[in-house]
Specification:
Chains A, B: Residues 5-314 form the FAD/NAD(P)-binding domain. Chains A, B: Belongs to the class-III pyridine nucleotide-disulfide oxidoreductase family. The structure is a homodimer. By secondary structure, chain A is α/β, with parallel strands linked by helices. Chain A has three domains: 5-39 and 77-114 and 274-343, FAD/NAD(P)-binding domain (3-Layer(bba) Sandwich); 129-271, FAD/NAD(P)-binding domain; 364-478, Enolase-like, domain 1 (2-Layer Sandwich). Helices cover 25% and strands 24% of the residues of chain A. The first copy, chain A, contains twelve helices and 25 strands. In chain A, the strands form seven sheets. Chain A has a five-stranded parallel sheet with strand order 3-2-1-7-18. A five-stranded parallel sheet of chain A has the order 9-16-10-11-12. Chain A is globular and about 65 Å long. The mean pLDDT of chain A is 96. At the A-B interface, helix 8, strand 21, strand 22 and helix 10 of A face helix 8, strand 21, strand 22 and helix 10 of B.
């Protein structure tokens, strides 16, 4: 117990682990290496910063370096861990200047997160083309979108920001038309954000409906919500190329031989993310779904005394029982906190995931949980049966009642709930928590139909949309 | 099988049962006796009609008599069942004219609902004094509140309405100051409604906080919400008397020897309801909690072939496992539907209740579930431990984040969740469904802390208020 607990990465998982560890084991040392300048920022808040809903970038920071210091955590920024030697129990660290040194550990947590993939598009060096996966990109987009004389430099009020990049983007003529490449949840949020900033926005999505993991019902309603606010949604429209030399000028979609060209003066690419695992190359660590580091129910990797958590790690899926990769904020915070406790001597499960996710497009709220995809359900040994209903969010006579679509998927043999989605404009997304709870307690659809959910005219009709969906799906299961 | 399925009462439970029975057993006869003219009305919507949120009384009706007829249900209004002979399997029915006849049954469902109790206050014959437990009272209150020249008689657009009573109340000078006697959920809703109609409203509540079954945290925040909109809330203030001869003039509160008099020109008494069981007097039927008809998990009473459902019947509580009396709309609809199926030959459980309830006071939403009361928990054999937290409803940087108070109660030995309440202004009430689901699946607080609830900045912070509360309560349980 002479060497410290070493944490790689100073965001949600890493700092949750370090903080919990310090509280539980105040006499032991914890060192956190962060390769950049940014720590503890709200990734999920970036689109809302770009939209202008959030005034100052500093509002998106949970902890400042000095607050981390006050917790007794030895935080070292501009220090990238480039290699791990599990047998020797030490890591190799590289400074921003390229110097290297070694650090021994008793326990190691890899919390290196994920990075945006850009598919075939290299946005580097093309003005007006971005990916949105870090705070510097958010600050640059925010500056680019504003007219030079209207930009408020205090919006990027964090010392870590790449000020040169911000200034350069702020000086450019503001764009009028933007392409959002990819209609996943970041794409949907960025589309709303840019439309709120007054741009003419086009969303291009490879497959037939937006938000693929949310299912077709949700995708179609979110598409309607975007279109109603003037966003042009192009489905079955994979982007072939970004066109432009110094500055983006257009995107090309459709047939390679006869592509359609849509002129734009801005593009944000959000086609996916990939776990950061390079530092474990050569260690023989087991990787799992999505190329993420495979961990057990305590967050342990296949390497001794090496843990992983957050967007770089798998988590056990409550429906399939298998390691899954669904990188989201709660998973990272929760796993980090549990590992901090475990390393401090209080073994704590990291918890299952249910694949719960929520997103909004203007006033339309959407959420999903569990396994919605037929193929994935079958692969896990289930025989999925699905129904979708449209039901009122409140008693019909109460003002504001809104059509809410609920999809439920269950296993034919056992009636067990496998997944669900909800979309609507009135308190729709938060209702997913009811289904997440039902999934994690392995409830059947008949049990869900008999749940005593709240009935009060301003919030729910006698039969909540979830109960209506359960009733209909039960009829199908019986039939 | 020569005699019909007889249903007593044509509201939520009775008509749900009759409708389900007709669908499942189309060749068999069902007769529904209703003692009055009204059928299938939304009791819970009446305060919102009085508030003016609902334009027409007919909006509160789910089914018209002709729609019931189209379902093949033999509905007979103005027919009161006054006696049941379980051995002979027949009921005695009295018409509005006082004539009596007998009706044989194969199966009988008692769905007679509940009536408002008025405590020591006889509101009959006193102008301006009301109880709100039927549509005629709602119509009369709505007419009384309006100035004679401003009242729109089309608001009471249902033929069943007591037009003479409406007209008489419409002709009176409109009140300026109202007393609401009783601060339960109907009292809170009526206070909001009358304030919305421009009255100076006083709420008098016997105990120390409003909404007793919701606990003190909720009661206090709802009191603040009412006061913020100009409603005067008097707690620890039992009303001794309504004062006035022909028309209400004041209420008296406080010491009998030295009462305080508050002048009012309107009073609405909402001090409780009582199950309607008179028709079973002399049958020896088992009664249970609250004097309601005790039923088993299929809705069967202690009398052969006699069922009971809705506000006149008990239901099994998911936490205590005992028959409980929590008269609410979903319970009635669900039990009626299940009994209709059972009588038709498809045995169906009526389902447990979790005591889930929700209410709003202007923009403040409150909800409760399970067992919150320490005494009741101990009586059921638990050792209750409770914590209350205040947490944000959204990510802190996201506009509209609102303080949400969550109380959780758990059993010390097992960690099992026994009850909870939630109050706040941003999607607070609907979150209770998560706790209801957790209670009905007998989850423990550690399991709840690890739930994968939705995180998205517009709807929930990383740690949903429910997760924050579970974390804090777990700390207490561990300590």
């Amino acid at each position: 117990m002479s060497d410290p607990f070493v944490v790689v990465g100073a965001d949600a998982a890493g700092l949750s682990a370090a903080s919990k560890f310090r509280r539980e084991a105040p006499d032991r040392e914890v060192v956190v290496f962060e390769k950049g300048r940014w720590i503890s920022y709200a990734y999920c808040g970036m689109p809302y910063f770009v939209a202008g809903y959030v005034d100052r970038m500093s509002d998106l920071l949970s902890l400042s370096p000095s607050e981390v210091d006050e917790r007794g955590i030895d935080l070292r920024r501009d220090r990238e861990v480039v290699a791990v030697e599990p047998d020797a129990k030490r890591v190799t660290v590289e400074t921003a200047d390229g110097d290297r040194f070694e650090q021994a550990y008793d326990d190691l947590l890899v919390a290196t997160g994920a990075r945006a993939t850009t598919g075939p598009f290299d946005v580097r060096g093309v003005d007006g083309a971005f990916t949105l996966h870090d705070m510097d990109a958010a600050a640059a987009i925010d500056a680019y979108v504003a007219e030079p004389d209207a930009y408020d430099p205090d919006r990027a009020d964090v010392s870590a920001v790449d000020r040169e990049r911000v200034d350069r983007n702020a000086a450019m003529r503001a764009p009028e038309t933007a392409a959002v490449v990819g209609g996943g949840y970041v794409g949907v949020e960025v589309a709303e954000a840019l439309a709120e900033r007054g741009l003419d926005v086009h969303v291009f999505h490879r497959s037939g409906h937006l938000l693929s993991p949310f299912g077709e019902t949700v995708g179609n309603r979110v598409e309607e919500a975007l279109e109603a606010e003037g966003v042009s949604v192009h489905t079955d429209a994979p982007v072939d190329a970004l066109v432009g030399d110094d500055r983006i000028g257009a995107v090309e979609i459709g047939d390679e031989g006869d592509p359609e060209t849509v002129p734009v003066d801005m593009a944000v690419v959000g086609v996916g993310i990939r776990p950061n695992t390079d530092l474990l190359d050569g260690t023989g660590v087991d990787l799992g779904a999505g190329g993420a580091i495979r961990v057990d129910d305590r967050g342990r990797t296949s390497l001794p005394d090496v843990y992983a958590a957050g967007d770089c790690a798998t988590a056990r899926h409550a429906v399939t029982g298998e390691p899954d990769w669904t990188p989201l904020g709660l998973t990272a915070n929760r796993a980090g906190r549990a590992i901090g406790a475990t390393v401090a001597g209080d073994p704590t499960p990291v918890g299952d995931i249910a694949g719960t996710a929520a997103v909004k497009a203007f006033d339309t709220e959407a959420a999903r949980v569990g396994v919605l995809d037929r193929g994935k359900a079958e692969e896990a040994g289930f025989d999925p049966v699905s129904e979708t209903v449209t039901a009122g969010s409140r008693s019909g006579y109460y003002p504001g009642a809104a059509e809410t679509d609920v999809t439920l998927v269950a296993d034919r043999d056992t009636g067990r709930l496998l997944g669900g989605s909800i979309v609507g404009t009135d308190r729709a997304a938060i209702r997913i928590d009811t289904l997440a709870t039902a999934i994690e307690s392995e409830m059947t659809v008949p049990e869900i139909e008999r749940l005593d959910l709240a009935y009060a005219p301003p919030f729910s009709p006698v039969w909540d949309p979830i109960l209506v969906a359960a009733k209909v799906l039960n009829g199908t299961l019986d039939g």
